[in-house]
Design a protein that fits this description.
This protein is α+β, with helices and mostly antiparallel strands. It has helices spanning 5-17, 49-64, 68-80, 90-95, 100-110, 113-121, 133-136, 314-321, 350-359, 405-408, and strands at residues 88-89, 126-129, 146-149, 158-160, 166-167, 179-184, 198-201, 211-218, 221-224, 243-251, 265-272, 281-287, 304-313, 329-334, 364-367, 375-378, 397-404, 417-421, 424-433. Helix content is 22%, strand content 25%. Strands 12-11-14-17-18-19-10-13 form an eight-stranded antiparallel β-sheet.
Length: 434
C-alpha cells in the first residue's frame, strides 16, 4: 500500500526539519517505508511546533544511541527505574546525573545545551522506555534500536534508526528491531513500585531490562504474582468495607498500540447527579492504578485481571440512591491522558453507548436498598443519554459498558457482566456488591 498525500507531505517536512542532523548513509530497519508510518489518512497540513520538537528529540535520542556503550548505559538506567515497564520520564532523566551522558551527546548533535533545552521545553512531559515486553526482556544493549515517537494517539508515528534516518514502521505490529518509545506521560512517576515487594522478572539474569512485578507475601517468603496479586497468606484477612466491587476483568481489545506499552485500564462510574437534570451525567468514581482512593487502586496490565477492587463505596452508593433511582453505569476505559480524568475533547463515545442501549435493555446497574444490597440489572434509562453529546466527550479509549450478561444473551460461569463496545463483545467481568 502506498502512502497517502498527507503522509508523503509529513515525510517531506520531516526531511526539511532534520536535514542538518540526518546522516545520509541510510538503512531501513524493520518494515520498509511502504508499511506506512500511519495506516489511515489523518489530515496533516503542517506539523505543530510541539510535534516538530518531539520529532527532533526522537532523532537526537536515536543518533545518540548509535554505539554499544551508550546503549548499555541506557539499558542499565532503564533497568533501575522502579516502574513495571521500567519507564523513565525523559526531561528529568536527561537533567539527572545518570542521564548526563545521553544529554551531552544529544546536545553535541543539537548545536549546544541551550538549543537542546529549548527544544525539549516545547514538548509536554514525555516518558521513554522499551514498550514491547518481549524486546524489553531479551535486548541486552548489544544490537541496534529504533526510536519511535508520537504526540497524540490519532497521529502517525515518527521513527528513526541509529543514524538518524526516518524509518517506516507499522503502527499495528512491532518491528523485529528493538524499539524505544517516546510518548506523552501516562505514568505516575511519584508512585514507584516498592523495592521490598517487587522483583525484576525475565531479565536474563540482569543482562536485559526485564519487567518489574509485584510480589505477594506468603508466610515468610515473597512469591511473584504477576498480573493477579490478590492478598497474602497468614492471619485473618481484614474485613471488607461494604461497597460495589470488581473481582474479575477480561478485556479482549485494550486499544493500546504496541508503541504505547501496557494499557492503563480504568473503571468509571457514570450517572446523573441531579434529579432535576436526568439527561446530564458525571464521572462519579474512578478505579485504576492511580485512583485517589486507596481502596480503588488496581493495576490491570494485560487481558486478564483477578482480585478485588472497590468501584463504589457504601457511602457513595447510599448518597447516590438517596437522590437518584435511575441507576448508574460502569464504563471501562483505556486512559490516554491524565489518570482518572476524562478529557472532554472529542465525542467518540455517544454512538457506541446508544447502540448498546438500543440492543440491550439493561445497561445500567441499580442498587436496591435492601438488607444485603444486592446488585440487580436495571432497565436502561434512555433519557440519561439523550443529551450526552454535551458531557460524554473524551479522548480516552472507550473499552465498553458493563451489561448484565444474561440480558445480553451470554453465560460465562462465574461472571456477572459482559463488556460491550457498542454491540461488540469486548470482554467480561464480575461485579458484585459486598
Amino acid at each position: 500500500m502506498g502512502r497517502t498525500h498527507c503522509e508523503r507531505a509529513l515525510f517531506g517536512m520531516i526531511g526539511i526539519l532534520l536535514a542538518g542532523c540526518a546522516d545520509q548513509a541510510g538503512r531501513i530497519l524493520g518494515p520498509r517505508a511502504s508499511a506506512d508510518v500511519a495506516t489511515n489518512s489523518e489530515s496533516i497540513a503542517q506539523p505543530t511546533e510541539e510535534r516538530a520538537a518531539l520529532t527532533r528529540v526522537a532523532q537526537l535520542v536515536a543518533r545518540s544511541l548509535d554505539n554499544e556503550p551508550a546503549r548499555q548505559h541506557l539499558k542499565r538506567d532503564m533497568r533501575a527505574a522502579p516502574f513495571r515497564e521500567h519507564k523513565l520520564e525523559l526531561a528529568p532523566y536527561l537533567r539527572s546525573k545518570d542521564g548526563k551522558a545521553l544529554f551531552d551527546r544529544m546536545a553535541s548533535l543539537a548545536g549546544g545545551e541551550q538549543a537542546l533545552l529549548e527544544t525539549i521545553a516545547k514538548v509536554r512531559r514525555l516518558e521513554f522506555y522499551m514498550p514491547v515486553a518481549a524486546q524489553r526482556e531479551t535486548w541486552t544493549g548489544k544490537s541496534d534500536i529504533v526510536v519511535v515517537s508520537q504526540l497524540d494517539e490519532s497521529e502517525p508515528i515518527v521513527s528513526f534508526d541509529s543514524r538518524g534516518n526516518p524509518v517506516g514502521l507499522d503502527r499495528n505490529a512491532a518491528p523485529s528491531t528493538p524499539a524505544l518509545s517516546i510518548v506523552p506521560v501516562e505514568t505516575n512517576f511519584n508512585r514507584p513500585m516498592p523495592a521490598a515487594t517487587s522483583r525484576n522478572a525475565r531479565d536474563r539474569n540482569g543482562e536485559s531490562i526485564g519487567t518489574l512485578e509485584p510480589m505477594s507475601i506468603t508466610g515468610s517468603s515473597l512469591v511473584a504474582c504477576g498480573e493477579t496479586c490478590g492478598g497474602g497468606g497468614g492471619g485473618s484477612p481484614p474485613p471488607i468495607p461494604p461497597g460495589l466491587y470488581l473481582e474479575y476483568s477480561r478485556i479482549i481489545d485494550a486499544k493500546e498500540p504496541w508503541f504505547r506499552g501496557d494499557p492503563e485500564i480504568e473503571v468509571h462510574i457514570h450517572g446523573p447527579t441531579y434529579t432535576s437534570s436526568p439527561t446530564y451525567g458525571e464521572d462519579l468514581s474512578c478505579s485504576g492504578e492511580h485512583a485517589a482512593d486507596y481502596r480503588k487502586v488496581f493495576d490491570q496490565n494485560g487481558a486478564f485481571w483477578e482480585g478485588r477492587v472497590m468501584l463504589y463505596s457504601a457511602e457513595e452508593t447510599q448518597a447516590y440512591i438517596s437522590s437518584n433511582t435511575q441507576g448508574f453505569h460502569v464504563f471501562f476505559w483505556e486512559d490516554d491522558n491524565e489518570p482518572c480524568v476524562l478529557k472532554l475533547d472529542n465525542n467518540t463515545l455517544l454512538n457506541l453507548v446508544h447502540s448498546a442501549a438500543n440492543a440491550f435493555s439493561t445497561v445500567s446497574i441499580k442498587l436496591i436498598p435492601k438488607a444485603s444490597w444486592p446488585v440487580v440489572a436495571g432497565a436502561f434509562i434512555a433519557t440519561m443519554f439523550s443529551n450526552a453529546g454535551s458531557w460524554m466527550l473524551t479522548n480516552d479509549d472507550f473499552l465498553g459498558i458493563a451489561v448484565d450478561q444474561a440480558s445480553a444473551g451470554y453465560a460465562y460461569p462465574g461472571n456477572t457482566h459482559v463488556i460491550m463496545d457498542g454491540t461488540t463483545l469486548n470482554g467480561r467481568a464480575t461485579i458484585v456488591y459486598r
